[in-house]
Each structure stands twice: as structure tokens, then as C-alpha cells.
User: Fold Response regulatory domain-containing protein from Streptomyces longisporus.
Amino acid sequence: MSRSVLIVDDDPAYRAAVRALLEADGAYAVSEAVSGAAAVAAVARGERPDIVLLDLGLPGENAFSVTRELKTLAADMVLVLCSVREADEFAARIARSPAAGFLAKDRLSVRALSDLAGRGP
Assistant:
């Protein structure tokens, strides 16, 4: 049975590439949001993905605030932060956030996401 993933990223090409990667073997059913606000609205409306893959670099938004809002709405969702930048730049904030962890965008794979999401609640 596939798990559901909500990709939250402002780059449509990145969302499409991640969707193709995650849906290729049927392990994940993917939905998308173009912003943190759109993701929060979707979850508030009742969408409950198993995993949220959230870009740290969303324009005009604080991804760490978005993670807190999402966890308030659905405590059992696994939140995974991602960025083109390295985790050490955000390490302290990631550690304090409700996210299960961080994946660099260039290292995202089905296995990496599955391994990290397995650590979530």
C-alpha cells in the first residue's frame, strides 16, 4: 500500500521531478502545494498526507512556522524539510522544529525519504 506525500515547493519543475521519482514504483501517492499557506489550507480542509516534504526556501514564508502549523493541525504527519542548501546552515532550527529531519534536494530518493519518514511519529 502506498503512502501519501504532499510536496510543498514553489518550483513546478522540481515538484514534477519529485512526483515522477516518488510515484515511479508505486510506493507513494503524491499531491502538491505551491506554498506553505496552501499546504496548511489543504490540511485544514481535511487532506491528511502521511508525509509532507517542505522546502525551506519558500518565498515570503517561514517554513519553520509552517511546520508548527501543520503539526498543530495533524500531529501524526511526518514533516521532512528540504533545501538546495545544506542542513548545517539550519541545523539548530531543524533540531528544534517538529520535523522528522532534513533532506538536501540533490540527495532526495525514495529510500532516503522512506528512511527519514520512518523516524517520524
About this structure: The longest strand covers residues 3-8. Residues 12-23 form the longest helix (12 residues). Residues 46 and 70 are 12 Å apart (CA to CA). The radius of gyration is 13 Å.
